[in-house]
What we know:
The protein is α/β, with parallel strands linked by helices.
Amino acid sequence: xxxxxxxxxxxxxxxGHKYHLETAKHLANADYSIALMSGSFVQRGxxxxxxxxxxxxxxxxxxxxxxxxxxxxxxxQSAELFAYGGVSLLDQLNIVDYLVFGTELDELEPLAEIxxxxxxxxxxxxxxxxxxxxxxxxxxxxxxxxxEDYLTMKGLNISNKTDVKNxxxxxNNILAIEYLKALESLDxxxxxxxxxxxxxxxxxTTLNNNIAxxxxxxxxxxxxxxxxxxxxxxxETYSHLVNYINKYKYFNTLNNYNQIVHYLLCTKDRKQxxxxxxxxxxxxxxxxYKANKYKDIDKLVESISTxxxxxxxxxxxxxxxxxxxxxxxxxxxxxxxxxxxxxxGSNKKGFILLNKIKEKSELPIITKFADYxxxxxxxxxxxxxxxxxxxxxxxxxxxxxxxFIHMDYYTTPYIMKK
Length: 418
């Protein structure tokens, strides 16, 4: 019984994801697949296009055997924390043999070398990282410069084939490095496999390739009828997108939260803002100052962003403000992760996986949301509270006259019948 694990967002599940899933199962010679998926909000600091159960339906109907939710406190974080949250949960299932992830490279070795360096963090590297940050560079660029400086000082080169900056410019490479670092830090037995990305790049915004990026598909869906993207997603995804839009009328975007964000930035005490996750001293002043000029989130984020504070980081901060996730809360909860396994979708093979997890893992499996109460675990409840709060916030962002609240209580995991 070989099991492959995938850390995903499926926002939405498209042809590139289908290729990745099928290639992953082939390379791992796997009989079963588990997707650990972000829920109501995603890593780049945006609401998911559709609700998490619709995403799970897309995945299961397209061939994933079991979909588990990545808790909110890790799903809307830097690449490092996102990867750690995902890898640590897959590791604690105690049944996953391989972690397969996409990269822009066609080899694993250079990424593994960088990951090891970042895990060890030699003193010279840490010194150069601090110096770059003090010069006002963003963390990703500071890290890239520090790695290059360290390798130059040591007379080394990453596999003598390519340079660090080119590797670290690519989103999938960055996440891959963090997955590898997390596997090493956890001393995990899960083996990594890299799949070279095909089709459009991660952040491409145009539908100019049969395997289009999720970014391009989301942009198209916000400007055109659903039929416009029919050829760029599996038929299962298309069907679920049609069902979703017929039910909820709107796809979700960060712009749907203009009023909420503006209100919070105008009324929250600045000391409270300094405590928000991912905030740095002084950044709260810049955010509040710009909020007095811009109500539109796109313009607000653009005006706040700098080379030190990339757009995605600012978006994550705005989501954390809405969710009231603070540094201190996160640091208290982090040691208790993983605290549970939240099932969002499954097919018949997924039930076999769940039975195996029950044998091998001590983590509680939550299928019916209200069942969390029986575990009488305050840390589990607090982490799960943020998942529920994120779901409620997701549906508040939709423009329906009818309110959709407490959907975690009312929605059961999607079970593929055939």
